[in-house]
Amino acid sequence: MKALIKIGGTLLDSVDSRRRLAAEIGRAHQDGLHAVVVHGGGRQMTRFLEERGIESRFVNGLRVTTPEVLDAVLKIFAGSVNQQLVAAFIASGVLAVGLSGMDGLLTEARQLSAELGFVGKPVRSDAGLLNLLLENSYLPVIACVAGDRQGHFFNVNADQMAASVAAAMQAKKLFFLTDVDGVWGEEKVIYPTITVDKCKKLIDDQIASGGMRAKLEAAIEALQQGVAEVVIAPGGAAGIIDRLLSGDNIGTRLTADVMVPGGV
């Protein structure tokens, strides 16, 4: 089975968390799961910029990416965060390969707007390189940096990139590992399952905002492109990968089909 696992940057901020997730994903990979990892790194990026006196500006939740910030994006997302995670996989006995969307033009993007600078939206991903790596027992680890055919780099939202790559590789499952327990509703409870229509309502009613809105939008996009199931789950929970793969009731599950009883 193919699965795309997106890891939020907050879960990669400590050595212990990186090693735990790498060990769990690595075991599943060694047991036959064809896993691809996409990661963020927003917290690390903000800290890097603050240390250098560079202001972080956001428009609709997206980081304005000047040439100076883009240089930091390459250093942090495609550099230190990516390589630290690759190293954690290597330490767990898995041959991981660090990539960005520019490698083999794995993910092609277009610029969103002049106001945002070098911020892009994925327009297509190509799974050829990923399939080659997976067939040879390597585990791809992808930073949320994309490119275009003119050789321009773009800072892209990691959730959008995960959806694009998951669809391209025909993943059966897409897991968003985050620092919250799942999707919260207006009733202040975590939904165990949720329909696409309900996701859209949470977005329209501004109940889901910021990072959760981005995840729901990416989840909807992935489902519409053929991914069978998306789960938004707490990456800090012990044994999270085994629990997700076994269908344990954790986080919030989204599918394109009618929900099971108890869902919304």
From TrEMBL:
<dbReference type="InterPro" id="IPR004662">
    <property type="entry name" value="AcgluKinase_fam"/>
</dbReference>
<keyword id="KW-0028">Amino-acid biosynthesis</keyword>
<dbReference type="InterPro" id="IPR001057">
    <property type="entry name" value="Glu/AcGlu_kinase"/>
</dbReference>
<keyword id="KW-0547">Nucleotide-binding</keyword>
<feature type="binding site">
    <location>
        <position position="63"/>
    </location>
    <ligand>
        <name>substrate</name>
    </ligand>
</feature>
<comment type="pathway">
    <text>Amino-acid biosynthesis; L-arginine biosynthesis; N(2)-acetyl-L-ornithine from L-glutamate: step 2/4.</text>
</comment>
<dbReference type="GO" id="GO:0005524">
    <property type="term" value="F:ATP binding"/>
</dbReference>
<feature type="site" description="Transition state stabilizer">
    <location>
        <position position="215"/>
    </location>
</feature>
<keyword id="KW-0055">Arginine biosynthesis</keyword>
<comment type="function">
    <text>Catalyzes the ATP-dependent phosphorylation of N-acetyl-L-glutamate.</text>
</comment>
<comment type="similarity">
    <text>Belongs to the acetylglutamate kinase family. ArgB subfamily.</text>
</comment>
<dbReference type="InterPro" id="IPR037528">
    <property type="entry name" value="ArgB"/>
</dbReference>
<feature type="binding site">
    <location>
        <begin position="41"/>
        <end position="42"/>
    </location>
    <ligand>
        <name>substrate</name>
    </ligand>
</feature>
<dbReference type="Pfam" id="PF00696">
    <property type="entry name" value="AA_kinase"/>
</dbReference>
<dbReference type="GO" id="GO:0042450">
    <property type="term" value="P:L-arginine biosynthetic process via ornithine"/>
</dbReference>
<feature type="site" description="Transition state stabilizer">
    <location>
        <position position="6"/>
    </location>
</feature>
<keyword id="KW-0808">Transferase</keyword>
<feature type="domain" description="Aspartate/glutamate/uridylate kinase">
    <location>
        <begin position="1"/>
        <end position="233"/>
    </location>
</feature>
<dbReference type="GO" id="GO:0005737">
    <property type="term" value="C:cytoplasm"/>
</dbReference>
<keyword id="KW-0067">ATP-binding</keyword>
<keyword id="KW-0963">Cytoplasm</keyword>
<protein>
    <recommendedName>
        <fullName>Acetylglutamate kinase</fullName>
        <ecNumber>2.7.2.8</ecNumber>
    </recommendedName>
</protein>
<dbReference type="InterPro" id="IPR036393">
    <property type="entry name" value="AceGlu_kinase-like_sf"/>
</dbReference>
<dbReference type="GO" id="GO:0003991">
    <property type="term" value="F:acetylglutamate kinase activity"/>
</dbReference>
<keyword id="KW-0418">Kinase</keyword>
<feature type="binding site">
    <location>
        <position position="155"/>
    </location>
    <ligand>
        <name>substrate</name>
    </ligand>
</feature>
<dbReference type="InterPro" id="IPR001048">
    <property type="entry name" value="Asp/Glu/Uridylate_kinase"/>
</dbReference>
